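Re-run with default settings, no changes from the original entry. Doing this only to confirm the output is reproducible before filing.
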Amino acid sequence: MLSIGENEITHYHEEGFVVSQNYLSDDIMNKISKCYDDFVTTNPSLTLEEMASPHIYGGVNMKHQINHTLSNNFLEIGRSNEIVSQVNKILGPDIILWGMHIMHKPAKTGKKIPWHQDGTYWPINPKATCSVWIAITDVDETNGCMQFIPKSHKNGTLPHLQEDKVKEEGELKGSLDLKIDEKSFNKNEAVNCIIKRGQASFHDTYLLHSSDANFSENPRKAIVLRYMPSSSLFDRNIPDRVSANGFKYEFQERPIFLVSGNAKQNELRNSNYPS
């Protein structure tokens, strides 16, 4: 069963990330694997950015072709006490699940993800999100593991450049249209996040990270869950953002889900979903 201890929590706060030494239980991993495979099989033509929010009916921009039952199954994963109880150790007792993403890198064709900070894209104030990245297949340098710059979360938001100024062969283009100015950090400090199926990495919203292309013969499969403390505000007054390729981030009406404690000042807007 997934569990992070005191040393791992300290590592998270000091380094900006931590990889669980324990593994998720077979029950939840089997559920994650089935949901993932059902989603990808049903939506073979979606781009990576369109694989966001499988737990929301219709997904982002109503791109998903999945039924409510499958969305509800994804939501159950995000609400799982096995996962939420570990996020509590990092963010505290009051937790909201506000995002989820299928991280699918096809064999031989999965693109490189440029260096970025997640919080640059999100309407959360203050920016205090913990991302839980769960490996469904073993992940290493050959199939596009994440790379982290340790302690970079302590520097706050770094300068970003628009996509059209930083084109690089083999990079994913689309919703990730802001890239860190590589003059602002040292890539030689990067560490590879090599994890096995069933392990989870936890990383801070300000942590610099990227991933290389998938050069292997098999798809790299993962899912990421996004949690925030309800002491932060999911700010629905921030205008929806449109990326360089026309992809629209829709946040103003997005349902979010209390998974622990009290929602405080946050509007959940999830009355159509099972409690």
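The first helix runs from residue 6 to 15. Helices lie at 6-15, 26-42, 68-79, 81-91.
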